[in-house]
Amino acid sequence: MHISLVNHWLLTYLLTEDMVVKVQALHFLVRNEKSQSWRIKNQITLLYISSGIILINELLDHCGTSYEIASLFGITFGTVAALIKISLLNVNHKNILYIVLNVVDDWWKVEDEKSKNIMRENSSWNGMLFYGILTPLLLYTSKFVIESIPHTIITDDNATIYVRTTPMSSDCWNLADIPTVIYLIRFACRTVEFIVYNITSCGIDLYFLVLASHICGQIEINNMNIKNFFVDRKGVFKRDYFYKIIYRQKHLLDMMDKLRESFNYTTLAVLIISGIHLNIMSKIIK
User: Fold this and answer.
1) Model confidence, pTM
2) What are the TM regions of this chain, as residue ranges (predicted)?
């Protein structure tokens, strides 16, 4: 069962809210995700292939400033990083699914008010991060899309030029002479690619943070239970309850280990790609 890009964000959104009323939605999303994943992956792959052909064509033109060319390289490497993130998470999909299902079960089984308050506090902070990342992302994408809307400019000799470009492109890549349908397809591909790149780059990082935050909250709850062990039992040692606490602590440590395994190679791959990108930019921008 693979966890797709769209489901990453849906799960992240649901995990950042008070999930007491959303547990059924989470169960449905996680357990029915397999039927959705292959369609989304095929569409994203087709998008990346078509957009990659366009990017290569623009780079071969050797047109634009060094900053604009570096920005295109940035999109290219960012797209590669996004695909690697998704692929590596799918390689570790069993670990991720195990963690997510346990997160859902934690919200389902929680009973005492103190534990609920700790979980709600963590989810509220995660919610702030979710909207704090999503809002600038949408504004940033809207800025480049609006700037690329077809327009006319007047040159110094009063000549009028009709300019049609795509987001994150240079004005010298004027697409005014190509058929309108082809231009609209290229514009849409670049816009969607830009959105997918940003969502994947930020979304998977936030996804990791949300899962890690939940595990930290569960450790805090378990530590609270350990401290209150004799208080809650009025000084009487309850062996079954004690073993339950120890087993829970072992279970949380196992979840932490699975989370570490799932994101170790993702982090390493992204750092390598970022290093290569920075080296190329240092050669281009002088």
Assistant:
1) 0.69
2) 66-84, 262-280
